[in-house]
Amino acid sequence: MCGIVGIVAQSGVNQTLYDALTVLQHRGQDAAGIVTSHNGNFFLRKDNGLVRDVFRTRHMRRLVGHLGIGHIRYPTAGSSSSAEAQPFYVNSPFGISLAHNGNLTNADELRDGVLKADLRHINTTSDSEVLLNVFAHELQKPGKVELTPDDIFQAVRAVHERVKGGYAVVALISGYGLVAFRDPNGIRPIVFGSRSNGTGKDYMVASESVALDASGFRLERDIAPGEAIFISEKGEFHHQVCAENTKLSPCIFEHVYFARPDSIMDDVSVYKARLRMGVRLAEKIVRLRPDHDIDVVIPIPDTSRTSALEVAHVLGVKYREGFIKNRYIGRTFIMPGQSQRQKSVKQKLNAIDLEFRGKNVLLVDDSIVRGTTCEQIVEMARDAGANKVYFASAAPEVRHPNVYGIDMPAKDEFIANDRDIEAIQTAIGADWLVYQDLDDLVDAVKEGNPGIDAFDCSVFNGCYVTGDVTKEYLERLQALRADASKRSTQENAVLEIHNEPPTPA
Question: Which of 1, 5, 261, 490 could form a disulfide with 20 if both were Cys (CB 3.0 to 4.6 A apart)?
Fold first, then answer.
């Protein structure tokens, strides 16, 4: 998962882009980049690391211009190269810089076409660079020396015809302005907003509405499935739906885990959706165990807090904060190596014994993927003196890989792979385990916007909304991710060996 932002304003945008990326930092902690445009020239800074580490004062001073785009990347399995940090750039036609959140399911086919038919060079393994070159090729028309908004929308239409998968895109075209577009199924999120600048409007496009809030932009709306917007350097706004048979099918895992609770996505408050998840989860607990003996509900910070509040309220038991989180440790689900994840859990959380000792505790988490974190947290609760440890997931069992931009592990790393709930319960060491039902999860989110056509729930049910994900594709993906995970484990082992203190003579 990544975060993207784009701004067109009447004054310098470097600080606003920086602030927006900082607000979106939860979407990726691996790399960050900003490109600005001034007098037809692009100015770029990107590298591996957190936003605060990538951009120093000297870098910010060079990022001049009143329009720009930014990107943050989360770590994929295996080591990451700064060469794959975004935004990417091509100099023909016009000069284009692009950043992208999502994944192209036909990236290999596209890469072959870009090289052999479009005669364009791809320098990295990133599908974002492939997408940039497809877009650039579709903009390049013989004898065309000036672009109109219709030309840009026609190029986006051609991109949608060639590209498959889930994607949200921001791009700068030198001398023209900012383009943003979303895949025809609306899988990946992207919104835009505006603020008054005295003589007109400044515009911002971002993955989540919180980025707009932080800089005083008012949320206008989401970019619709298949829609593109173009904002000229002068602030002129144009938009057009550039795809046929569009359908709003956003990724439901955004509401479960990735998005900040204060975001609004597709007219749904993430916070309220998580509250409703908690209500439905509690109602299931009451159905299954009407005479439950739960003394206290404790969330596993941070994402599950909202759901856990309502679980406690509906059950009529105490809600307590039983774990203290170290804010300087990244999100374990998106850490690259299994050994690094295992090591980080106990660095990240510490139990408050008095909230556990002698009590029957219900731990609530947003979801369970590998189960590594859950197992260690259950153990921590027992070590803190809990009498019984129950575990509840606000999402159903994760059994299938995500192919639209969430780099989940290989399928055989899922704790729910080839296990029923009782076996999972035993594996994590809980006295009882309960999962949210998928229908309840969907209802909890859709209640915020009944106009949503469907959701991409593929990680739970294996149904991929683009219709092009074959068994062979998933097997190939499984092999690639397994190899990447193996390389990552080996690299981490080497790092640990090299970081050991010298043996005394």
Answer: 5
Preceding amide of 396 cis, omega within 30? no
Catalytic residue among 2, 242, 251, 374: 2
pLDDT tens per residue, range 451-480: 999 999 999 999 999 999 999 999 888 887
Only one residue has tokens 């036609």, namely: 93
Question: Structure pTM?
Answer: 0.91
CA distances (Å), origin 5, targets 189, 196, 259, 480: 12, 19, 15, 30
- Give the chain's length: 505
Is residue 438 packed enough to be buried (19+ CB in 10 Å), middle (13-18) or exposed (0-12)? middle
Query: In whole angstroms, what is the distance from residue 68 CA to residue 36 CA?
Result: 4
The question of whether 2 is a catalytic residue gets the answer: yes
Per-residue model confidence as pLDDT tens digits over 395-445: 999 999 999 998 787 888 999 999 999 999 999 999 999 999 999 999 999
**Element (DSSP H or E) covering residue 343:** helix 338-348
Residue 491 reports pLDDT greater than 60:
no
Tokens of 398: 């994760």
Q: How far apart are CA 437 and CA 458, in angstroms?
A: 14
Give, in order, the Cα–Cα distances in Å from 495 to each of 21, 414, 491.
Answer: 29, 26, 6
Nearest Cα residue to 244 out of 175, 316, 161, 326: 161
Please answer whether residues 71 and 99 qualify as being in contact, where contact means their C-beta atoms are separated by less than 8 angstroms.
yes
422-433 tens-digit pLDDT: 999 999 999 999
DSSP 8-class letter at 501 = P
Secondary structure letter of residue 456 according to DSSP: B
Nearest of 90, 93, 91, 179 to residue 143 by alpha carbon: 93
Tell me what the mean pLDDT of segment 17-36 comes to: 96
What are the residues whose beta carbons fall under 8 Å from the beta carbon of 58, sequence distance 6 or more? Answer: none
Tokens standing for 127?
């599908």
Beta carbons within 8 Å of 105's beta carbon, 6+ residues apart: 164, 165, 403, 404, 466, 468, 469, 473
